């Protein structure tokens, strides 16, 4: 697992993160999400989105916003040392749901297919979330992701929701304290 360097996201990473994110979604979610949505993703709007996201994330992490909520705001990417490529990223922060089961949400974990099974997802979760209790939403049909989350202590709690834009159903998984 020394094949990766875990590091904060920077504005210089925005273009590669956008392209990598689109690739992960197209590889992972074909047949699970709206194909029109997947086909319609375009790089330049995603780069702009990532630049904004990186700025907000870094401001929160460094205390410029949400400093009083006692929530860990942390985003990290994994850079594959031999190629220099971004292999994946992970983002944690406060809940996006009004009735969250715990106050910490694992909001995103994406790893390129080339790096599945390498241990990089575990490194990213350790670097961002650590052992904190948290919850997440995962596409119901994404059994690979659900199996990984179970390995790191998450379990379905019965929460479900429908994402009409993506045309998919999601289940909530929670990792309790302790």
From TrEMBL:
Per UniProt, the enzyme's principal EC class comes to transferase
Top-level taxonomic group: Bacteria
Per the database record, which ranges form the N-acetyltransferase domain? 4-178
Q: Per the record's keyword annotation, is Acyltransferase included, yes or no?
A: yes
Q: What is its EC number?
A: 2.3.1.-
Provide a Gene Ontology MF annotation, just one. acyltransferase activity
> Which keywords describe this protein according to UniProt?
Acyltransferase, Transferase
This chain's protein is named: GNAT family N-acetyltransferase
Q: Which organism is it from?
A: Flexivirga alba
């Amino acid at each position: 697992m020394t094949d990766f360097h875990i590091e904060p996201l920077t504005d210089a990473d925005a273009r590669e993160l956008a392209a990598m994110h689109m690739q992960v979604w197209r590889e992972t979610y074909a047949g699970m999400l709206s194909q029109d949505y997947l086909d319609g993703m375009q790089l330049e709007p995603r780069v702009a989105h990532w630049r904004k996201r990186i700025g907000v994330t870094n401001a929160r992490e460094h205390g410029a916003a949400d400093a009083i909520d006692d929530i860990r705001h942390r985003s990290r990417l994994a850079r594959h040392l031999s190629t220099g490529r971004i292999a994946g990223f992970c983002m944690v922060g406060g809940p996006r749901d009004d009735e969250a089961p715990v106050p910490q949400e694992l909001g995103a974990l994406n790893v390129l297919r080339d790096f599945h099974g390498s241990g990089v997802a575990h490194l990213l979760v350790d670097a961002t979330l650590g052992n904190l209790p948290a919850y997440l939403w995962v596409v119901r049909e994404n059994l690979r992701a659900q199996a990984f989350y179970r390995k790191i202590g998450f379990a379905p709690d019965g929460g479900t929701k429908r994402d009409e834009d993506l045309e998919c159903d999601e289940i909530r998984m929670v990792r309790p304290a302790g």
